[in-house]
Structure formats: C-alpha cells, structure tokens
Design brief:
The chain is α/β, with parallel strands linked by helices and 355 residues long. The protein has helices at 13-17, 33-45, 61-65, 94-106, 109-118, 120-127, 129-145, 175-182, 184-188, 196-208, 223-238, 258-265, 271-280, 291-320, 338-350, and strands spanning 22-27, 50-55, 76-80, 86-91, 167-171, 213-219, 243-251, 326-330. The longest helix is centred in the last third of the chain and has 30 residues, at 291-320. Residues 1-10 have low confidence and may be disordered. Residues 23-200 form the ArsA/GET3 Anion-transporting ATPase-like domain.
C-alpha cells in the first residue's frame, strides 16, 4: 500500500479534507454534485476564509442554484459565509480561458479574439478535447497557486505572500469522464511534446498530483451511482491522485423504527390494526367505509418504504467497504435555496469539513 492509498487514519472524514487547497467534486449525474460542491465551498469558508468555487461544464448550474442570472467569466463573490468568510464563483469557459492564457503569457489577447471570430478556438477545442480540459483545469489550478496581490502570471506564484484563496472547489465533470479530464498530461501528449502547452499541462498536473488536492465523490444510496463511485475511485487511484471523501447525498431518514421496518419488509403488518388506526384518525366521512381497503394500500406503501430502506442500507454498507470516509447530506424537500445551502454546509462542518 502506498501513501496515497486509504489507511486507517483516513476513516475520519476530517482527514479527507484537512490540508487540501483544491477540492475536486465529481459524481454521477442526478446525485446533486453541484449542490454538494457549493455546500462544500460554503463549509470551507465558514471559518472566515476566502473560497473559490469553479464550475467547468458550462451549465451555469451554480448560478441556477443561487437564483442568479448567468455568470460571466470572472471571479465574483456570491455567498457570504459565517465569521467573515466568502465564496466566490467562476463559471469557467474554455474559450475565455484560452484568451486569458494568450494574454497572460504572450500579450496576444487581440490575436485570440480574432481567432474566436474565425471560429478557430472552438474548432481547436472540439478536435482536441484534451486542450479544452487543460485550459479548464488550468484555470482552477492557477487560482490555487495565486498569491494575494499577485497579477495572474506564473512568476507570481513564487511569492511568500499568503494565498489569494484559502481553498478552491471545482465542480468537475461526472464520474464517467473525471479520469480523462484530470489526466491532462496524457490528453495533451499527442498535441505537444514540448513548448508552452506542454509546460502549462505540467504545471496543472503538479497541482493535481500534489498532496494538497483531493478528489471527492458524490453519490446517492442507489445501485447505479454507487457502482459509478466504486469505478471512479478505482480509476482515480490508478492515476495516483489523492482520494477524498464520499459524500452520500439526499439521505432520507427512516419513518419507522427497526422492528416496524422489519415487519413491513416481511409483509407482516397487521392490516386490521392499521384499519383501526385509520378509523380513529377520523378521515373524510366519504372514506369511512373503505378503511380496510385503505389499510391494505397503506401496508403496501409502508412495505415499499421498508424495502427501499433495506436497499439503501445495503448500498451504504458497500460504500463503507470502500474504506473511504463517508459524509452524509439529507434529502431536501421543496428545492434548494440559500438557507438550505447554509444548512447543508453546517452539516458538512459538523462532520469534520474545514477543521
């Protein structure tokens, strides 16, 4: 076992986040990846720090989540956190990142704009998706390296000044693409053996492979997301990157105690007792003659709930067997707003994030 593989000390969720400055959040579509990434950024900022949340898929998911219009390509403070902390958001775009790259390193912004008008940038990033990925990951890793008061150039990263951001959270592509997205050195190998693009990719990988970077997986207590999580963890481990935590999202509390859940799962509920309870509840008089029928329907619903809970417990056990720290977030009824995000961030903090 090498020092990047899981060990006993990493069973503590706090260890999966401690010491990291770049948190890469991935997960199967539909598991609430963007919500979890935003809550993580807010949790990390809650100790008074400045955190950057970078979205790289071009979906404007963070803007939608925060009830904001589409965000431009700029780092903009969007959420105030406890203790004077703040979350800034960047909706990264490959084309804008390329223009910025040309300006930063070559003073060629006007030339880059001309390439954009000709469609050359879009053409290049379409036929060479590795170039797109290195530009997007490069934007996040540049923010990790940037020092306070520094201009955004590679030479500024050598300063002894404090970092501009205490942490950077990347709302990354889903698990099915995360390995390729992060392995930018391999992706650009066929594009450039030497030169500025290769040097840029090397700087990106230096940050991604560092011990200050963690890759976290968001999942739900369902078989398909859990399987993708297992596959993704294996892939990231093979790439030699540091694994973080598994965020189990949308967890619903059981409605019954263990004894009643077992009885419901075994279809051993007393429907006569259920009918008596429905009658005592004084339902609509129009339903008063159908207590037995309603009790049977209710027993079926309760059994479905019990079986669902049993499945979730099995999936949770499989996730625990991966040896990664697990943190849980509850299922939110009625959608996600800023108050709900603050509650999710608080729950992450209580489980060790940001310590």
């Amino acid at each position: 076992m090498n020092d990047r593989e899981q060990g006993p000390r990493e069973a503590d969720p706090a260890a999966a986040f401690a010491g990291a400055r770049l948190h890469i959040v991935t997960g199967k579509g539909g598991t609430g990846k963007t919500t979890a990434a935003t809550a993580l950024a807010l949790s990390l900022a809650s100790r008074g720090g400045r955190v950057l949340l970078v979205e790289v898929e071009g979906r404007q998911g963070v803007a939608t989540l925060l009830g904001s219009p589409s965000l431009p390509y700029e780092e903009r403070e969007m959420i105030s956190a406890p203790n004077g902390g703040s979350v800034h958001v960047l909706a990264a775009d490959a084309e804008a990142a390329l223009l910025e790259y040309l300006e930063m390193f070559y003073g060629m912004r006007r030339a880059g704009q001309a390439l954009t008008r000709l469609g050359a940038v879009d053409f290049a990033t379409t036929i060479a998706p590795g170039l797109r990925d290195v530009l997007l990951t490069g934007k996040a890793t540049e923010a990790v390296r940037r020092r306070a008061g520094a201009r955004r150039r590679a030479t500024d990263t050598r300063s002894d000044a404090p970092y501009h951001y205490d942490a950077v959270v990347m709302d990354a592509p889903p698990t099915g693409r995360i390995g390729r997205f992060l392995n930018v050195n391999s992706e650009v190998a066929g594009l450039a053996k030497v030169g500025p693009i290769r040097n840029h990719a090397d700087r990106v990988m230096e940050v991604i492979r560092s011990t200050q970077t963690r890759v976290h997986f968001v999942t739900a207590l369902e078989e398909m997301p859990a399987q993708e999580t297992r596959d993704g963890i294996a892939e990231i481990g093979e790439l030699g990157l540091d694994l973080g935590a598994v965020v189990v999202n949308m967890v619903a509390a059981p409605l019954l105690d263990e004894t009643d859940l077992a009885a419901a799962a075994a279809a051993d509920l007393d429907t006569a007792e259920l009918a008596s309870g429905l009658k005592a509840a004084r339902l609509d008089p129009a339903l008063s003659e159908h207590h037995e029928e309603l009790a049977a329907d209710l027993a079926g619903e309760v059994r479905a709930h019990a079986l669902r809970h049993r499945l979730e417990e099995r999936v949770r056990g499989e996730l625990e067997a991966l040896g990664r720290p697990l943190v849980e977030l509850p299922r939110l009824e009625g959608g996600v707003d800023r108050a709900a995000l603050a509650d999710l961030a608080r729950r992450l903090t209580e489980q060790g994030v940001g310590r």
